Amino acid sequence: MKAVTLALGLCLFLQDSEKKLSLDDFEADSTEWTALKLDTTGVHPDPDAKAAIVRDAGAAKSGKGALAYTYGIAPGAVSVLALQRPIDLRGMKSMRLWVKCSRTTAVIIGLGEASGASYQAAAHCTADVWQEISVNLDELTADEPAKDPNGKLDLDQVGAMTVFDIGGFLATFLPDLKGARSMVVDDVSFSSKPVTASTGPAQVTRVVPIHLVDNFETSVIRWIPVSVDFSDGPKFNLFEAAVAVDKEVPEGGGKQSLKFSYPRKGQKIHALMRNLEKVDLGKATGIDLALKSSHDGTFIVAIEEKDGSRYNRTVELHAGDWKKLSFSLTEFTKADDTQDENDRLDAPQIKQVSIADISTMSGGTEANENHLWIDQVLFVLGP
User: Fold this and answer.
1) What's the CATH architecture for 200-381?
2) Which residues of 88-122 are buried (b: 16+ CB within 10 A; e: fewer)?
3) Are the CB atoms for 280 and 201 separated by under 8 Å?
4) What's residue 383's pLDDT?
């Protein structure tokens, strides 16, 4: 009997043991990663960018070596760091890497199939700080779903991995982003064990399906800080306010929330934006989220459609109190400065969700610094 128990225990151990694939720790003298450029004519080697192993003191996250990538941000082209070779990820469930950026931005991590389909995840990257990016492979979303007939990442067909700065896509609209930048990458690996799930399809009960936009339970921040200054404009800006995961959570919440810190001054709006353009929210019937502000204020929860039409719901917050919110999509009203062909918020057309502080624009008091916490953002799905 002891032998049988021991054998069963050994089988369970072998089933639960973690398998790891170290794709690159950059401790070797050379690298297969290359610098590419994506523009209207296709993908080409980027002669103005460079990817090289560095061994300077303190340059690596761990060990002695890391990959230094220098590139430019300019309208009309996107600089991409790429590893172009087959990567067998069968049995893997999560990926992890470390990134340090010279400027605060968001980076996009992609895994590409031979079909041309790319599955991606975005992560905020604070300037000159090592950022851990750990996500489950089933949390990646297809960049162009039409390129993949089965609509899922096939782990035995991965032919490339890419890392790039989102600034390349935005420079056409925000020319102030252009200029030289650098990024350091280290310890790229995959694991057969999942990390904490923080986005994607889920259920809050056995009968209520949801799409979890974010529970903020990992170090990956998918939201972009945005500001609009109306005193001389409007003038748009990105990444000028600080975001970080925080231990402040509502009652019954998880272990972390997202903390957004910004000055509340003059004719300026600060907001957080989460892009959902690649997510199928056709069955969404409502949105739930929890908010808390360090000062009294007026906020707008906005949902934007793919055609640019925007629908709002105004929320009043009292200083220091978490407020759990649950809105039907029918409770959102069309913004005064937007047009829509049917004047209705259509779930299949949802492109992004944002939360904006409009306190000073609506007669509220200013503050040298306001903190806004966000937690448990999800869409409730219907049958």
Assistant:
1) Sandwich (2.60)
2) ebeebbbbbbbbbbbbbbbbbbbbbbeeebbbbbb
3) no
4) 87
Q: Of the candidates 193, 194, 195, 191, which has an alpha carbon nearest to the alpha carbon of residue 21?
A: 191
Question: Exposed, middle or buried by CB within 10 Å (0-12, 13-18, 19+), for 292?
Answer: buried
Extents of the domains making up the chain: 18-191, 200-381
* Contacts (Cβ under 8 Å, ≥6 apart) of 13: none
Mean pLDDT of 184-192: 98
Residue 13 confidence (pLDDT) above 50: no
Distance CA 321, CA 250 (A): 9
The residue count of the chain comes to 383
Expressed in percent and rounded to 5, the helix, strand and coil fractions of the chain are 10, 50, 40
**Contact between residue 49 and residue 66 where contact means Cβ atoms under 8 Å apart:** no
Angstrom distance (rounded) from CA 274 to CA 287: 14
The CATH number of the structural domain formed by 18-191 is: 2.60.120.430
Same fold, 18-191 and 200-381: yes
Q: How many CB atoms lie within 10 A of CB 362?
A: 13
Q: What are the phi and psi torsion angles at 288 (to 5°)?
A: -120, 145
Instruction: Give the distance from CA 96 to its chain's centroid.
Output: 14
Pick the closest to residue 193 from 122, 109, 97, 91 (CA basis). Answer: 91
**How far is C-alpha 66 from the chain's CA centre?**
23
Contacts of residue 2, defined as CB under 8 A and 6 or more positions apart, other chains included, come to none
Which pLDDT tens digit goes with each residue over 44-68?
999 999 999 999 999 999 999 999 9
Q: Is the pTM of this model over 0.85?
A: yes
Place of tokens 């793919």: 306
CA dist list (Å): 136 to 199, 200, 382 = 9, 10, 25
